[in-house]
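Researcher: Next sequence.
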Amino acid sequence: MRTRITRWAVGALSAFAVTAGMLAPIPATADVPAGYYDAAEGLTGGELKTALNDIISDSTQLSYDEVWDALKASDEDPNDPNSVLLLYSGESRSKDANGGSVGDWNREHVWAKSHGDFGTSGPGADAHHLRPTDVQVNSIRGNKDFDNGGGEVDGAPGNFTDDDSYEPRDEVKGDVARMIFYMAVRYEGEGGAPDLELNDEVDNGSQPLMGRSSVLLQWHSADPVSDVERTRNDVIYEQFQDNRNPFIDHPEWAGEIFGDGSTPDPDPEPEPEPGCGSAPELETVAFSSLPWDARMTIEDVQNGRTGETYENREGVLPDCEDGYYDLFHVGYEDRVIAGDGGEFYYTPDYYETFQSVDLDS
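Model: Next structure:
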């Protein structure tokens, strides 16, 4: 399975790109009660996280059955009051079609409940991270962490998945990120709930961890808060749980808690390409002998697809100056195409045994 090259992806070995500044505070359309966040004003980092945990932990606990009613209200299709909008596919589906059969929608745990083994109570019944999702698409997402890449998901165009990660469609990338941020602040190990934390990994399994944090921060920046999210936040607060998702009301707080106080650039300008030699000491592999997915990746690149940014800090590509090159993942992460100046290098061993590709063979 080829990894999709996404415009928000960054190189596997490159530094995390950020730009100065913060996201703008929430517009006045959100119905934030006066004084709700007073205890968090002026704080940063761990102090801000602690203050927000205190604020949003003052809430009403729903049962898992009550979540059905919450989602029918919070995710109602604004153009059809008898339907809900499904998170990953964007489809409008009848509120009555909830259940576990093919064609139904069910309750997707955006923070997968196995990441912390919290089941369907406590954090498992928190409507701020539960969303209506097609039963089969929900099954495909499973308990995977979030990251860029993979093959397109059947039944959810614009969504991509591979063995250990899931990438939602562009229109809800930020929604997903802000739900994950909420969970990592709301659940800090109190009352028998797990201490949920972000990390920058995938394949976290049953650990109370969810990744990738760097990608989630990029999604948060690239897909700003929408009116749909604001309305959903208001409905959950006013009608069901009596608490809010602070990263919808104050998106600038995500960088303060999970980043370095700045906002990641969702589409950074590429660095100038330095000179790169032909690397004659490398073994040469014929284009025709490459696996089919590697050949397809090269053809995509030659047809104008852009890749990820790879920083050659370790001199992995011989005869190339330190600097930035385009990087193209192929299949599993240990098979990579790097292109610079029209030349390509291939490795089956994750950056360790590069071969020069003879494009004419």
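Model: The two ends are 24 Å apart (CA to CA). The CA atoms of residues 105 and 134 lie 4 Å apart.
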